[in-house]
Write a structure and sequence with these properties.
This protein has 411 residues and is of the alpha/beta class. The protein is built from nine helices and 21 strands.
Length: 411
């Protein structure tokens, strides 16, 4: 049995503010060459945060400014050119975006996955050189009045070798936020290696209480690394929910669109998109769209105050395989989200596993009006219960949302 005191609770605005997606608008030989489609796809998702690289050339600025004009907030990763980082050049382009729209950039980020790449800085390509780049980035940004309020994310390591991570050292003095990448191998459920792998990047920022997960996701390529569209959708939602329940300030899914069609060199890298190459949504995009829409579906006339009856909310039947999150909508409704952490994919046979159904009983602290949603399939409720104190639901493969409003608060 679980009471609300054990549930993590956030506002709907905070949830939306904490969700982002990776894009690559400088890749003009990919699906990202169409900036209008990129903006349309972001709008469909209800996401206003993106992660990309700092532009490296003047011709790129037009599309970055177009994103800014559309209200998109950016996390920009330092860009190497010809295998080398030129920090003054990166800072110069940051300034140009900032001067166009001072609200457009949320973060600037150090080098990407330094243990997996071999870029140079000031002539050196050792890990210590990437640490020097991070230090110089942090100091330079916070010494420039125009950029001084900009938050700096730390570099990311990449890989799973603890010894290599230890060689980087503590970067806490050179970052405002810890920066984490998490990819679950072989399509296993997000929680399987979560603690083990996220601890690696977090170990670089021991004294930081705030963290951003700047890359995470599943691809739909037809090999042992890939999953079906349904699994990408289910595991994607579960990743977002797990990250938020563990306090990550932002989570950027990888990535918005499949970059290319498969040709002679088919690769999983082209299949991480929430959307297909042609811009049509995969199930993952549909699920996120539905989820974000559901957060706006409560009646417009309810009391916005947190109801003391929440202290008496009880959830039975979760066992060890389910988790919960409560999201408080702006209009005063509450969304109880329940999701699972048991396996749903067999990478050896490249096939889905049907999760055993679980009966969940939710007892509310006061009589409530309840709507039950399945965001994987629709943004309209499956069933409703009015003026009830207890609801029984079946938790199947995908997360469910129970929107409830204490009946005494409904006007």
């Amino acid at each position: 049995m679980l009471g609300v005191a054990m549930c993590f609770m956030i506002t709907a605005a905070d949830f939306q503010y904490s969700l982002g997606v990776n894009i690559h608008i400088g890749f003009k030989d990919t699906s990202y060459k169409n900036i209008d489609r990129v903006i349309d796809n972001l709008d469909y998702l209800g996401i206003t945060n993106v992660r990309d690289h700092v532009p490296a050339y003047d011709w790129m600025l037009k599309d970055y400014n177009k994103l800014a004009d559309a209200g998109i907030k950016m996390d920009l990763v330092l860009t190497p050119v010809n295998g080398s980082y030129d920090l003054p050049s990166n800072i110069s382009y940051l300034k140009k975006i900032y001067m166009h729209n001072s609200q457009a950039v949320r973060f600037v980020e150090g080098a990407n996955e330094v243990l997996l790449n071999n870029y140079r800085y000031k002539g050196g390509n050792h890990v210590s050189d990437m640490v020097g780049l991070q230090r110089d980035l942090y100091n330079m940004v916070h010494q420039i009045p125009l950029l001084g309020a900009l938050d700096v994310l730390g570099l990311t390591g990449g890989g799973t070798d603890k010894n290599l991570y230890a060689s980087i050292g503590d970067l806490s003095p050179y970052a405002d936020y810890a920066n984490v990448h998490y990819y679950s191998p072989f399509g296993v459920v997000p929680g399987t290696f979560w603690a083990q792998f996220t601890a690696l990047d977090k170990s670089l920022y021991a004294s930081k209480n705030h963290a951003v997960m700047s890359e995470t996701g599943y691809n739909t390529f037809n090999d042992q690394s890939g999953v079906s569209e349904k699994i990408q959708a289910v595991y994607g939602l579960e990743t977002i929910l797990r990250a938020k329940s563990e306090g990550y300030d932002l989570t950027y899914l990888y990535e918005l669109q499949d970059q290319k069609l498969d040709g002679e060199k088919a690769t999983r890298q082209n299949h991480y998109g929430l959307f297909n190459f042609d811009g049509t949504p995969k199930l993952a995009a549909i699920a996120i769209h539905n989820f974000m829409e559901i957060l706006k579906t409560g009646p417009s006339q309810v009391s916005p105050a947190v109801d003391p009856a929440l202290d008496r909310l009880k959830i039975e039947g979760l066992g060890t395989i389910a988790q919960t999150l409560i999201i408080n909508e702006e209009n005063g409704a509450y969304d109880l989200v329940i999701w699972r952490n048991d396996e749903m994919w067999d990478y050896k046979t490249h096939s889905e596993i049907d999760r055993p159904k679980r009966d969940i009983v939710v007892t509310f602290g006061t009589r409530s009006n309840v709507r039950v949603y399945d965001p994987l399939h629709d943004d309209t409720f499956l069933v409703k219960y009015d003026d009830t104190s207890k609801v029984s639901v079946t938790l199947g493969n995908a997360p469910i949302i129970m929107e409830f409003i204490p009946a005494k608060n409904a006007l």
